[in-house]
Structure prediction request, 560 residues.
Amino acid sequence: MHTTETPGSVGQLLSPKVSTWLRYAVIVLLVAGVFFRFVNLSQKVYWTDEALTSLRSSGHTKVEFVEEQFTGAVISPETVMRYQSLEPENGWGHTLAALMGNAEHTPLYFLGVRGWMEWFGSGSGAVRGLSAVFGVLAFPCVFWLALELFQSRVAAWVSLGLFAITPLHILYAQEARPYSLWTLCIVLSSAALLRAMRVRSWQSWSIYGLSVALGLYTQLLFALVAIAHALYILGVEQILQKRRLTDTARAYALSAGGALLSLSPWIVLLVVRADRIRVTTASLKEVTSLDHLINRWFLGLSRSLVGIDLAAANLLLVLLVVWALVVLCRQTVPRCWLLVLLLVAVPFLGLALPDVLLGGGRTIRIRYLIPSYVGLQLALVYLLTRALAPSNRWQPWLWRGVLGAMVAIALSSNLDSANSDLWWNKSVSRSAYYLPVAEMINREAKPLVIADRHPSAILAFNRRLDSHVRLQLVGDRDRFQVARGYKPVFLLNPSEKLRTVLERQGYRLKVVYRDPHAPDAEADRLWRVQRPAKAQTLQQKPASAPANLPRNAEVLSEEG
Prediction:
């Protein structure tokens, strides 16, 4: 691995020797980082996106689940869980078919989950374990990237320590989604690119091309990283060195072109499924005001780097990363700062410009901006590493204080997250009700839960239900009849039409849980189905009961 500091290299501007205390400090942070990635994996809320990971990786589809179970029949949580578990009749072909039906997600991670489930099972903690492993595998790649970029072991050690405890990377290493693998591909491919440009061998360019192919098959947004790499090659080889066509440019074109060619079957699938993809990604295009976008960008930076909302101090963190970029650009050679700047700018602008010009909320999804946050971290590494050099001036001590404060806040946030069932990355507005509502249902002796929409949410919420609970999933609302013999009966996120049908049948509906985190239209999460007093009297005197009284109304006669 290249560590020699050439004349004028970035490494000469940094502390030349890794001190013993720094090594020990980073080792402590590494241990903490591994711990936070694996602790309480089963405890945390398994939200809708994760449920869809299990659904598709096990070879099932949402359409299949709705057609087979939204029939009005009474089923158990185990029946619902079957759609998130491996079954003998569902082989790898079923998994691939399920993934091809949702082509907006490339298949590498999900196929990995399929293989992982065969070894470790379908439980929440077991499935998330694969993401945690990818999160740890990123450690050596981060060290390698910082070493290639800054040509300084001190910077590499600092980068490794900061990455290990960064809340963004920890949270997505605990989630059954592709983002920890995507992060691994981002740092791996960037390090491989720098090495290939330095070594100039076909083997090194082959490694780079393979890393790009892995990135594209992990997340389609990796294309923005590949574009940043292409602009970097263009900037370094043709603009800075004023060469028309270099061997490096040719090698890059062959490597990246080969990776893109390997994706061609999935590109064809994207074209074929274009109409369906537009429907499934429609929420990304919801109109969002510019003020709201900017506020969320500031919040996203704070949550990603230190794990919490710093309120008014979010602006200070923004100024810090801007200053880090300025210092990087002023004090390092273009070969260094250009890659960092492109990693930050290309993915961000690639999503922010459509948000601003066309409307949408792509950049509100913090996970979509992981390449930009990796770039910002690299800029911070350079700024804070300079503070570790011995000096009698006061400025380095200021930056050491900033570094210590960031580490302390991040560790505190990670500790809070480790002890919490729900954190901001689980879409609180959609998932916060799982815990209190499931607790209300589970403590009843013989409850029935009726639902008629949001099948993805049902798959996720079902994991919180005890085995004695029963569900009745409704497809045909007009012909629906409440099942007999259960008490109490609940409605979970019912549609207005289902409520109207039940009220026409003589039932009374009462909201028993209102979600303070959800939009007003979705806030009434759990309803209790009750029979009016008049209907109870009629049930006691069947001879005088009206002809249109539901035949199963007596089930609820004790509800009062």
